[in-house]
Amino acid sequence: MRTLSLAIVAAALAVATPVLSEPCSTTVSTGVNSSFSFNELGQDLSHRAVVQLSGTYTCGDYSANMFSTSALSTSGRYGERSYADEPDFTFMRDHTYATVAGPVDIQLSIAYWKYAPFKSADANLVFASAINRPIEVRHVTLNPFLRLTQYLGLGSAPNIFDVHPGVRASLPLSKKWTMQTEVGMAYNFAGTDVFARATPIEGPASALDHEVPYHRHTAYATVSFVYDFGHDMSVTVAMQSMQHAPASLGLTFQKKF
Predict the structure, then answer these.
(1) Which residues of the chain have pLDDT under 70?
(2) pLDDT exceeding 90 applies to what percent of the chain?
(3) In principle, which of 100, 115, 176, 222 could form an S-S bond with 122, CB 3.0–4.6 Å?
(4) Would you list the DSSP string of 78-101?
(5) May I ask the CATH architecture of the domain 2-256?
(6) How far apart are CA 27 and CA 23, in angstroms?
(7) Domain spans of the chain?
């Protein structure tokens, strides 16, 4: 299954050429979260507050994103920084196909995630494919999805294949407020030695501030309230509950140009 997923993603990205005539836009966001958790693996990468920055450039179906998160505390178990310091780079194609069953969205992406820069050699090359089908039910938009992800580990990070079904829902509360929810379950496949490890670090030099085990499956739920200021600017308050990790609260400002 992982070979098929990788082949689909690699083939699609190899022939992907953005159409220059498509309209382009830039979206930037900044926010703070009470902790930094990873849904797919049920990991609490930092139980301390983090600040997050993101920038996405989109042309038609294609987008390039740069994301970073930084721990506000520098008193980690291994010294100055932790796994909560993470820059990510992602290239994605997101296309909607018209089918007899209605519109179907397919996303293909490749990403590079670097953990604890300058303190660890750990990183991941991430190949993902996802499919979702928007469904309108009265005023609610339901969006069931299935995502397949292959994590190719660098440094001491292991190789893991993830199957992630879930559903998103969006409900307008007023002209300005919208409530969004997401509920999902991630199933992870890897060698038994991966799940037996206490933490994905290679020793004191990797600068993790606490142990981060891997889990075979993780359930989570997120509730967000989005306020639209107009002029393509919004603020989001999000609350997340996740198996194997403490609940978190986040505040994010976003602007589209």
Answers:
(1) 1-22, 39-44, 73-84, 118-119, 192-213
(2) 50
(3) 115
(4) TBS--TT-EEEEEEEEEEEEEETT
(5) Beta Barrel (2.40)
(6) 13
(7) 2-256
